[in-house]
Amino acid sequence: MDSRQRRTVVRALWIIGAVAVVVAIAATAWWQWNDRRHHQRHTSLISDVQLSGEGRTLSVATSWRPHCDGARPQLQAQESSTTVTLTLKLGEALRTPCDDETVGINQVSVTLQSPLNGRRLIDASTGRDLKPSAK
Question: Membrane-spanning residues where (predicted)?
Answer without folding.
Answer: 12-33
